[in-house]
Amino acid sequence: MPDRGPQPDVRRPAAGPSLGEIEVPDVFKGADDDPPPFRERRSRRDRRARRGRDTPMAITGVGAVTGYGWGRKQIWDGFRTGESAVRLATGFGEFIKGGSAYAAVIRSSDDEPDGPSRYTRALRFAAREAIADARERGWRPGPVVGIVHSMVLGDVEMWRDFYRFEGKRTSPRRWVQLMPSTVITMVMKENAFNGPVLSVSAMCSSGNAGLLTAKSWLDNNIATDVLLLATDLSGIVENFRWFSDLGVAVLDRPPLDACRPFQEGSRGFVGGEAAVAMMLSADATGAYGRVLGGAMTHDAYHPITIAPDLAQVRSAFTLALENAGVEAAEVGYINAHGPGTAQCDAAEGQIFDELFPDAHGIYSMKPFTGHCQAAAGAVELLATLFSYESGTIPAPPRVAPGHPRLVDGSTMREPGLELKSSIGMGGLNAVVVVDGPATSAR
């Protein structure tokens, strides 16, 4: 090895001048003599203000496959009637005592051309419905339409069958169908979309993370329109069993007995599945609502436990307000993550009281939709859009003593912005700021 001479000690940086001792060259100084770091921070704040409520992202079309059924109408009807999609589902005998569990699972479809599995069929159905809905409401695609796919485990049933039964017998065609890019390619091909495509994975915060990714594309002219897909059909026996063993999922009780967010006696969440699609655009024609901004943080603390100081959960809320260019006093409601677990409910309840003392209320949709994992934020955001459309918040009813500002059942909506919060396993926090519809030109 050639002799490189004396090497610097990389373990400890050499002492240098303090920040106050550094001479700033005249070329970097402005009229107010700000050093570069401060000028850069100030310009970033200016950009955040411009890209918040001044450049909203409109949700112009919606598609959904949920425990309520195949189609947007089914979940809208469930919200109107105040019924839960969670039912006693069977077929779990291999891992769960009694072979049944309460969950909002998606029933199979016989639409073979859309793919070989529930996952691919539900995703394509939701995408097709959202695009058609947007067109009916007046949206027209711009020149660059992309897809952001919020997902975590992917097509678990096909992968399970591959590892358990198929192995070497799998055909090349079947192997390609396993790839997460295949179903997205089919959606792009069907609609002649040629914009960017990206999968986003942030555990239970994936839906919110996808929305914020899409907004960044629109803000930076990477795309003119974005189809957000949030898909999670992982309600199989293996996953339900281990969530139960972890102590966060409840399998043997009806939804309002098991999952009571922000109320006494809650034992955890009930399972759920969903495939949700939203067409997102800078053009607010026919919009259900508008995303003004948001933020994401990470606890960097523990794989399953929220950091006790709640610093990063709190930051996700405050940074979301700053990014959207709004004040806490403008917030009327929080559509919370609210899984019914002690630590998550306590965290969001505390933040709600600290930051939003004048807000009308807080609620969680999980007793109705189940916890849909990667699709949770997206399917629960549909309740916010429904409230802007109907004037009614479709919250689950209060069944026990709880937070004094918990929205109790179907309630007339009062004026104010709404925050959709998500807390993903591992410390992934994401909050989006949502406003009602408004008309604007592209």
The total beta strand count reads 16
The rounded distance between the terminal residues' Cα atoms is: 62 Å
The number of helical segments is 13
Q: Show unreliable segments.
A: 1-49
Structure explained in plain terms:
The chain is α/β, with parallel strands linked by helices and 442 residues long. It has a single domain (57-435), classed as 3-Layer(aba) Sandwich (Peroxisomal Thiolase, Chain A, domain 1), CATH 3.40.47.10. Helix content is 34%, strand content 20%. The protein has helices at 36-50, 72-81, 118-136, 156-166, 172-178, 180-191, 206-219, 237-246, 255-258, 311-324, 342-355, 366-369, 376-390; strands at 57-66, 69-70, 87-90, 100-104, 145-150, 197-200, 225-232, 271-272, 274-281, 289-298, 331-335, 361-363, 392-394, 410-412, 417-424, 428-435. The strands form three sheets. Strands 1, 2, 5, 6, 7, 9, 10, 11, 12, 15 and 16 form an eleven-stranded mixed β-sheet that branches. It has a three-stranded mixed β-sheet with strand order 3-4-8. The chain has a two-stranded antiparallel ribbon with strand order 13-14. Strand 1 (57-66) and strand 2 form a beta hairpin. The protein is globular and about 60 Å long.
Quick rundown:
This protein is of the alpha/beta class. Helix content is 34%, strand content 20%.
